[in-house]
């Protein structure tokens, strides 16, 4: 993300009834998308496994489904090659971010959200196109990773977050043959046409890329 959230958000997802409906509805919709996609392609995407809710692409991730309005069903890497990872900062706390990605009105979501304590949540399958970069080509060809925090608060970028995110990015790079360099692991701010600034100047790119490279070597 990378912009301030509308102040109205705070109260919206908080109503228990509405939240329950939203989550249940999301699960049902996802089931429909599964049947549709598998009917169209006739097979699951090799390397990513079956399109089953609750089954993340990354072994250390927990699954929470985003609203199907926040991504497009696809069959990557067969229809679009995955060529990069886009790093984001949420400009919101973890719970708010997850609620936004579950909300069909948000019209955006990333594949992953990394919490400050290092927990990784997957919300969209990698074979699908998440609406996170604000640029059609970059959405089609990337995996988006959100990090819990604010671009103006360096303390938000914890050791645990860097370490967990680097392991995730290394795993994505390994599975799709994406080079571990700054042409292929980029910030949202580097996407052409964006007005977003995340991950911002406090994101420690040299450190992050070192951690990604180290994790990539370990798993080679
Ligand atoms: Zn962003």
From TrEMBL:
Pfam families per UniProt: Amidase_2
Reaction(s) catalysed (UniProt annotation): Hydrolyzes the link between N-acetylmuramoyl residues and L-amino acid residues in certain cell-wall glycopeptides
EC number per UniProt: 3.5.1.28
Keyword list, A-Z: Cell wall biogenesis/degradation, Hydrolase
Signal sequence annotation: none
Residues annotated as domain N-acetylmuramoyl-L-alanine amidase: 71-200
Listed SUPFAM superfamilies: N-acetylmuramoyl-L-alanine amidase-like (SSF55846)
Biological process according to GO: cell wall organization; peptidoglycan catabolic process; peptidoglycan turnover
CDD domains xrefs: PGRP (cd06583)
Segments traversing the membrane: none
Name of protein: N-acetylmuramoyl-L-alanine amidase
Organism: Streptomyces montanisoli
